[in-house]
Amino acid sequence: MGIRKAKTLLPEVDGLDNESRVRVLGIIDKLRELGINENVSLPQLVVVGDQSSGKSSLLEGLTGLSFPVAADLCTRFATQIVLRRTAEEDAGVRITIIPGPLAQANDELKAHLLGFERKLRLHDFGRAEFKDIFDQAASHMGVPGPSTTELEGLDKRFSDDILKIELSGPQHRHLSVVDVPGLFHNPTKYQTEEDKIIIRRLIESYITDKRTIILGVLDARNNLANQEVFTMARGADPQGARTVGIITKCDAVQSGDEHAVMKIAQNEVEKLNHGWFAVRNRSTKDINEGVDIEGRHRKEREFFASVAPWNELKKDRVGVQALKDFLGQLLYKHIMDEFPEMVKEIAALSQQNQEELDKLGPSRQTSADQRRYLTRIAAKYQLEVTNALGGNYDPGLEADSPLKLRMHIRNLNDKFADTMARNGHARVFLTTDGELDQEYVRGTNHKDIYTWIRSIYRDSRGAELPGTVHPNVLMNMFCEQSLPWKSIAEEYLAKVGAVVSAYNEGALASLVGDDDVRRQLEIQLRHKEDEAMANAKEQLRIVLNDERRGPLQTVNHYFADNLAATREERSLSRLKKMGFNEENMYNIDVKELLIRAHQTNNDQAVDDIHDILKSFYKVAMKRFNDNVVVQVVERCILGDEGAFQALTPEMIGDLTDRALEDIAGENYATSSARNDLISKIDRFQRGLEITRQAGI
After folding, report:
1. Taking the CB of residue 23, how many other CB atoms lie within 10 A of it?
2. Where is coiled-coil annotated (predicted)?
């Protein structure tokens, strides 16, 4: 039957209205009109329950909108109904599709769904028209609709897309309510296990939103323990602050079963903070007999007033009118509670999108535009590098952020020095007492250094006088003793390179919003990193050769001081081993002392070689460490000619127009992204202006 009168099909939703609520709900409605709800969740009512539990009929009672019904086919997608109070000349119906998560990832499918739009005058929107548009929308989504007859072998049975129905007119009140597909438990030839998973995920996506008021629907004829939707609601809303229980089909309960349902309705079984409501919707018999929405309300009032035991329930807990009054209060309070946080989210999104737009920069259609854009990026990059090298970090950075450049370099420097101290020597030096020197016993190289020295000394003897050592012998020994330096320094250098690469990647990610431009700049920086690393390796080779290939040289007085101290310790140690100490040392016959302290020329030479090598090694290693850090890393990698010089304003100024186009030329995707960001920012700013005018 096609009911043409809007007053009959779409009565006032006056239970959700008063002056204060109209103003507040109007603000939410304006935000929704702007499309803010695409990015920020807005307060709304969502009807959830099992299939055939009476959800659609309840929605009909709340909104006055009669859904098409197919005997073998339940709702296959979510339906959002938005009621707006407007002037008569603006009255009408607009039906569109909001693409779901799957369609959002497919540009072609998304455009296809967004292309669906139907507009009608309010007085032309009857049941027949609604059914026809419902079919068209279902076909557009690729799922069966009310008129579908072939229900087997369907490729797609449910959709995560949303059918949005906007009703505008002077008799409406501001309201948004959503009906989602019902849960089912046993797959059939019409609905599969995969369908069950899709529906569950869809319901969860709604009820886990903290700004959704959950209207949990229970068929009075079914056991509450079997109603999974209430288990899901408890998981999403453990405090019950957003859940309202609604019992439908009270008139269909078998005689004798009413007591169990009454206990639920009286909030004695599944206890909800907001309690339960009982309603009587139109039955199939009512619909077939032509009972309209007003008739539905009348029959409901008569049922709860006269039929036992339902007439024992509190009057403010039965009937759709009482439910609407309660939801009006609850929705209003919910909006007021969420409003401050909602405004913060809108402001944060506006700021976030502005930052993304700033990273994309202005339009880059000409060479001048491109040069200005890249010059600005280069200037910011150089400022960031200067701050990072100076240890001046953004307080918001994570503790191990790659943008903390100097921190990571300092850590590598310390680790390099520690590794050199532990593993830089081929053999561990000894103390004057002949024990392993604990300053060097941190690695694994505990070979007998004295055996090694004695062997080289014996095998290298030439024309020098007995007991003396040729300088080349010491030089060769030092070269072998410092053999690990090269690998340790190269490993340190590689780690510095990795830190620099990570910094550049992070810096560009924070400065450049265009993926294509960022990739091009990363290529430029990598080339410079490779060049800087090659220079650093060459400088390291020079430093190593200076230390390990030339004559042993130093003007550092610590060498002489260390050697003198070692020789003194060695003499005292030898005397103590012979029984002399501070108490008897001055009563000793000098001749006897010299005789007993005498060493062979070879032993004396070995001791001298060890002590000279040890004293020089200590000075040379510290010098080498500093030279690697300063001359190799700081100069070649971090300095003015290093890895960070590929992106400077001067370099951008020297680029040809062709090079500018290759790096910063704007493609369609970037242009579209910029326009999208501009649109979002405008939407968020208008939304913030609406909230400011609200005075809430």
Report:
1. 14
2. none
Tokens of 491: 């490993």
Backbone angles phi, psi at 655, to 5 degrees: -70, 145
Q: What SS3 class is residue 47?
A: strand
Q: Are residues 137 and 190 in the same domain?
A: yes
Quickly count: other Cβ atoms within 10 Å of residue 244's Cβ: 22
CB 473 within 8 A of CB 457: yes
Q: Are residues 256 and 383 both part of a single domain?
A: no
3-state secondary structure of 175: strand
Q: What is the CATH number of the domain that holds 78?
A: 3.40.50.300
**Residues 503-559: tens digit of each pLDDT:** 999 999 999 888 888 999 999 999 999 999 999 999 999 999 988 887 888 888 888
- For the stretch 230-276, pLDDT in tens is 889 888 998 888 899 999 999 988 888 899 999 999 998 888 889 99
User: Do residues 157 and 76 touch, judged by C-beta distance below 8 A?
Assistant: yes
Give the 3-state secondary structure of residue 403.
coil
| Buried b or exposed e, range 333-363, using 16+ CB within 10 angstroms | ebbeebbeebbebbeebbeebbebbebbbee
- Domain presence at residue 475: no
* CA dist., res. 179 & res. 421, Å (int): 71
Please identify, among 350, 379, 397, the residue that sits at the C-terminal boundary of a domain: 350
**How many residues make up the chain in this entry?**
696
Question: Residue 281 and residue 596: Cα distance in Å, rounded?
Answer: 119
Selection from 214, 252, 253, 258 nearest residue 232 by Cα: 214
For residue 336, the SS3 value is helix
- C-alpha–C-alpha distance, residues 57 and 561, integer Å: 98
How far is 498 from 520, CA to CA, in rounded Å?
19
Strands 78-85 and 44-49: unpaired
What residue numbers bound the domain in which 581 lies?
365-422+483-664
Q: Tokens representing 357?
A: 């737009």
For residues 202 and 271, state if they share a domain. yes
Neighbouring C-alpha atoms within 13 Å toward the C-beta of 675: 7
Domain tally for the chain? 2
In terms of domains, do 337 and 413 share one? no
**CA end-to-end span of the chain, whole Å?**
46
Q: In what order do the strands lie in the sheet with 162-169?
A: 117-120, 92-98, 162-169, 78-85, 175-179, 44-49, 212-219, 243-248, 276-278
408 and 310 both lie in a single domain = no
* Residue 538 DSSP class: H
What are the residues whose beta carbons fall under 8 Å from the beta carbon of 455, sequence distance 6 or more? none
Whole-angstrom distance, CA of residue 44 vs CA of residue 29: 10
Task: For residue 445, tell me if it sits in a domain.
Answer: no
Report d(CA 347, CA 338) in Å as an integer.
14
pLDDT tens sequence across 540-551: 999 999 888 878
The residue from 322, 350, 378 where one domain ends is 350
* Three-state helix/strand/coil letters over 417-477: HHHHHHHCCCCCCECCCCCECCCCCCCCCCCCHHHHHHHHHHHCCCCCCCCCCCHHHHHHH
The answer to whether residues 663 and 512 touch, using CB atoms and an 8 Å cutoff, is no
pTM of the model: 0.57
Are residue 641 and residue 540 in the same domain, yes or no?
yes
- Asked if residue 404 is part of any domain, the answer here is yes
Both 330 and 401 in one domain: the answer is: no
Q: Are 299 and 271 in contact (CB under 8 A)?
A: no
Asked if residue 587 lies in contact with residue 647, where contact means CB atoms within 8 angstroms, the answer is no
Residue 343 is assigned to a structural domain of this protein: yes
Distance CA 647, CA 654 (A): 11
